From TrEMBL:
Transmembrane segments: 314-333
Region described as Disordered: spans on this chain: 143-172
One Gene Ontology molecular-function label: protein serine/threonine kinase activity
The entry's keywords: ATP-binding, Kinase, Membrane, Nucleotide-binding, Serine/threonine-protein kinase, Transferase, Transmembrane, Transmembrane helix
Keyword Isomerase attached: no
Matches recorded under CDD domains: STKc_PknB_like (cd14014)
Pfam families in the cross-refs: Pkinase
Organism annotation: Aporhodopirellula aestuarii
Keyword rRNA-binding tagged: no
Name under which the protein is recorded: Serine/threonine protein kinase
Annotated Protein kinase domain residues: 1-254
Length: 551
């Protein structure tokens, strides 16, 4: 570690243990007054002994620097845990807040205000939190009087956790300032974000005075109302509106735990009208202790009181549970065959791929399996074939548009037929579809009538395509006439200067009909067009000859 580091890991020779040494620059060149004040400081810190407060072993001077030796605490800070986990469960925050509040109560009764409480000042040692960076100042002595304070302005992130009455690191703080910072710490641990927002010092300072934080319960829904009420009262802008002391916060934390464990209802808490945070005098505090089971002047054992609200009683819950079970049985009761067909038909009528797929998965296939001899089984099988055919057609169209590889012979034959159909040669397309049916039609049905899924959808698609083309009753039955018409279209596109579109048609003619001897002259003409345009360039001219419409 460099010489400028603020914290060192060292060995305490007399104690024979590892310690953390914090090194400070002595103000005023190490005057007698500053050294005396610093010596009084570490003497005061050495007397602190609390399980949730980092132990101080003393300090000393070295040239122009002063140092303090502290107990070495291993573990992540609360800030590290919040950064790693996003936010903590409210139960975990309650477990952390109780010892930290007890540590603040211990400091406040000895006239010490922490003043810098935040997630980075708490180390999680195992499962126990430990408060670090405690300095022996009281509420009347601002931090700037300390002999070892670094004169650095607070960052926006530090300001988001500061009390409104003391936004600066040099401002005077009180025990209620510590309570505000405890509330900010609990708020950030539960929600994952500080209670105040802002990206600059000016914006954050203004928000600190006027912005009202969103309640914890509205951000994290499972937070109990009692925990929400405590955190929001700790974050009150007016110090007088906060709890009177750390002891009052300890009582409220105990109340949160008791009510959470007893499952007390929110209505009971809201109607009780009592909270130990609201007490203002000693008599009220004694009453709070009595109501919270903290009897101060009697040894009479507490009488167990059933605090369960009426709506959580067994005589209410059992009928409600029975009603819920009846509703669940009614909803989960299997549908009959007629009802399944009705729901499947409604989805099929929507006509979208998603609705038809849902009809097949949710109703058609279950009908075939549950009612193999039912009156609607044949209809369900037909609809399954139709849906799978449409799915296969869509999948093949996507592959052709994106130039994706085809997985089997059925897809290759069907794709070739679809390209002829797209080109306009329905006669050749029908021949190709018929070839697919002849080649793979028998393979789509087993010896016992069982159908194989691999070829059946595309064979059905080929049959459907043939029926569709035949029903159209078009006049385009001769490949020569079709190619001639396409050549005329390509020539016209070329004359208009649309060379790329013309070449696309010529390429298609050559690719589709290169092996067809009946139209060889037309294919040769398309090849010549391509060769001439390639030789002359996109700006060149080619000789367009008049062709006969058919061979």
């Amino acid at each position: 570690m460099s010489k400028d580091a603020r914290v060192w890991r060292a060995i305490h020779v007399s104690l024979r243990k590892s310690v953390a040494v914090r090194v400070f620059h002595v103000a005023f060149g190490g005057t007698l007054e500053s050294r005396t004040q610093f010596a009084e400081e570490w003497a005061r810190l050495k007397k602190l002994d609390h399980p949730a407060i980092c132990k101080c072993y003393g300090g000393g001077f070295e040239d122009s620097e002063a140092y303090l030796a502290h107990e070495l605490i291993e573990g992540p800070t609360l800030a590290d845990e919040i950064s790693r986990r996003g936010r903590l469960p409210w139960e975990t925050v309650l477990d952390l807040a109780e010892p930290i509040t007890d540590a603040l109560s211990y400091l406040h009764t000895r006239g010490i205000v922490h003043g810098r409480l935040g997630p980075d000042k708490i180390i999680i040692a195992g499962l126990s939190p430990v408060l670090i960076d405690v300095r022996g100042e009281d509420g009347s002595a601002p931090f700037r009087e300390g002999p070892y304070h670094f004169q650095r302005p607070p960052s926006p992130e530090q300001l988001k956790r500061r009390p409104p009455e003391a936004p600066g690191l040099h401002d005077t703080v009180t025990p209620r300032s510590d309570l505000y910072m405890l509330g900010a710490l609990m708020y950030e641990a539960i929600t994952g974000a500080p209670p105040i927002s802002g990206s600059t010092i000016q914006e954050t300072t203004a928000n600190l005075q006027y912005q009202e934080p969103t309640t914890v319960a509205s951000t994290v829904m499972d937070t109990p109302v009692w925990m929400d009420r405590l955190v929001m009262q700790l974050l009150a802008k007016d110090p007088a509106a906060r709890p009177v002391s750390a002891d009052a916060v300890k009582l409220q934390l105990a109340e949160v735990r008791r009510r959470a464990m007893s499952r007390s209802g929110v209505a009971e808490h809201a109607s009780s009208g009592f909270s130990p945070l609201a007490v203002t005098n000693q008599a009220d505090r004694e009453e709070a202790r009595v109501l919270l089971g903290k009897h101060a002047k009697t040894d009479t054992p507490d009488r167990v009181i059933d605090a369960t609200p009426w709506h959580d009683k067994a005589w209410v819950l059992l009928p409600v549970l029975g009603l819920l079970l009846a509703m669940l049985v009614w909803v989960a009761w299997p549908l009959n065959e007629d009802k399944m067909r009705e729901r499947a038909q409604a989805l099929l009528d929507e006509g979208t791929r998603s609705s038809m797929s849902q009809a097949k998965i949710s109703y058609l296939e279950p009908m075939v399996h549950q009612f193999p001899d039912g009156q609607h089984t044949a209809w369900a099988s037909e609809q399954i074939d139709r849906v799978e055919m449409l799915e296969a057609e869509h999948a093949l169209t996507v592959k052709l548009n994106r130039n994706l590889p085809l997985k089997n012979e059925a897809e290759r034959l069907c794709a070739e037929a679809m390209r002829y159909e797209t080109f306009g040669d329905n006669a050749t397309a029908v021949d190709k579809y018929q070839s697919l049916i002849t080649l793979l039609g028998e393979k789509s049905t087993g010896e016992n009538g069982d159908k194989f899924d691999e070829y059946r959808p595309l064979v059905n698609l080929a049959r459907n395509k043939i029926a569709r083309i035949s029903a159209a009753d078009t006049d385009q039955s001769e490949a020569a006439r079709i190619i001639s018409a396409k050549m005329d279209e390509a020539d016209q596109l070329y004359l208009e200067g649309r060379t790329i579109a013309a070449k696309k048609i010529w390429y298609s003619i050559v690719e589709l009909y290169a092996s067809n001897a009946a139209v060889a002259p037309l294919v040769k003409t398309a090849q010549d067009r391509l060769a001439e345009t390639s030789a002359s360039g996109s700006g060149g001219a080619i000789r367009l000859e008049k062709r006969e419409p058919s061979l």
